[in-house]
Amino acid sequence: MLVVGLATALCVGLPGQARWARPVRAAGWLVVCGMAMACSHRCALPGGVVAWPGVFAGGPDVMLLVPLGLVAALARIPRDCSASLGAALAVIGGGVVSSIGAGWVLLALCRTPQAGRRHAPDMIALLLVAAGSRFPGQVGYLLPGLCWLATQGLLGLSLSLRVAPRGLRPFHMADIAAMIAAMSLWARLPAGTAVADMRWGGVLIVAGCLFYMTASWRALRAPDARRVMTGLAGGTGAIIITLAGLMLLARADDLPGMASCAQRTYLLVAGLLLAGVLAVRALDVMEREAGALLLFRLGGLGVLMPRLSALFALALLAESGLPPLLGFSIIWMLLRLLASMPHAGGLAGEVPLLLALAVLGVGWAVRMLALVRIVAVMLCGRPRTPRGAGAADPPVREQWAVLGAGLPIMLVSIWPGWWLALMQGADAQVASAWPHLAAVALTAPDGGAALHPARLCLFAALVGAVVAVVRRLARRPPARQVAGWQQGAPVVPPWMVFGDPLTQVGPGNPARMLLDMAVAAPARRRFVRDYAHGLLLARRLMRSGTGRVADAGCWRRVPGAVVLVVACVLALMFIAWQG
């Protein structure tokens, strides 16, 4: 029945010019969400279940169709619809079909020929993952590394600090679908040997911490709002890699409590993707009303578009990790997981944990600076263009659409335990906890600590209400809210932390002011230059052995398809030799 629902979504998901095409497509994907929840809770569907081994796979990862269905229902352009269909194949398919679906999503993300060449290693890694899934016993120790290479383009992972348009693509719905496809690949990773899983677990944890820090830096230095969201989403992808390493480590050391907590945190990350859906819908409307989303041209949207700006700020808070929203719950669970990792006694056993916590802390601090920068410039700054000064909230119909995208992340942030119960409906323990309110809290792996996000949300709501009442009593609001972009600017509001809007220089000032307090500007520039030169030198060293062969005239005419076929044949020969 689930396959029939997906086929229906495929038929109505093709882009069309008719007015009824988009509502029917959204309804089809919402039906898929309902059917996925019914299958997870073991409800009897008409027609029963037809077993088709190797082509379609069941299991808990099928519940990823719930956030994917919401993404696809709100998609507006053909590229996003195509990426959603490919991600659906990656979620419900077997080993080979899921790799095909992930490759489909990569093709949907290739907006330019340069992007296609950049994703070529990911395609080769996906082919190797598809081949290795047929023989997991022979190449099980290689699958985590191959999955890492195959999903780095889907998750937006990179150790580069570049924020140029070629190095950092803008954020759209297709990127959220790509992250769901990557999560499905990581969720069905087969079990390997204890030694291999332990080694790969440590490598993935270290790599995830480094990716988190570089993604936070790219979000801080991004030139426009969509690329800031790309950096924040890259940090979420780094958390997925870290959780995959923790699950491998818990499985190797036979720690069921730690593995269960890592799995629950994994599902919370799937819920956090709903914040990206809200941000994309808000940015689409802002781009239509205020023009290009470049930070050196935007400003004053908090006064000009108060309702839409509040929803966008909600998505930023959830992505950043500030309490009491879902990002803070994920960071809390991740820190508890790292603290419960098995390690040797003494200083030598504590140093890796302390280094991982330090790198995560630095990445989180840089992520907070990125949040302060975009809020101070985009929402609390002053308008810099006439079109930006003339922006206003959209019609009520479009506001309700954005509010509908923000309602799920608000509910998941307040009651994450209910989201976990929804996503783990096939689990007997979770199913028995449905009648009780104990499922609302989040429990640490050791069971010694619990987090109640609902209480934090209630406290934040009370503080916000008090601030609103005091502000209302302190001054009378003007009859017409204006924000002059050149002359006649209003009095500096209390949330403007960077002084008079007429003296605010540009969007780079907040980040530079705070960074100069920690590291001097010349030292920071030298570090970035040396880092870029180091990466360039490493690439040259890797290519030095094959440079002469690659530069030969006969190899320049070999098409990319032939190279992929040769790589697949060599991979199959290696698998047969290992067997």
TrEMBL record:
InterPro entries: ComplexI-like_HydComp (IPR052175)
Record field: transmembrane: 50-75, 87-109, 141-159, 171-189, 201-220, 232-252, 264-283, 322-339, 351-379, 399-421, 450-470, 558-577
Assigned keywords, A-Z: Cell membrane, Membrane, Transmembrane, Transmembrane helix
Record's keyword annotation contains Transmembrane: yes
Location in or out of the cell: Cell membrane
Topology class, membrane: Multi-pass membrane protein
One GO CC annotation: plasma membrane
PANTHER family: HYDROGENASE-4 COMPONENT F, NADH-UBIQUINONE_PLASTOQUINONE
Protein name, per record: NADH:quinone oxidoreductase/Mrp antiporter membrane subunit domain-containing protein
Organism: Komagataeibacter sucrofermentans
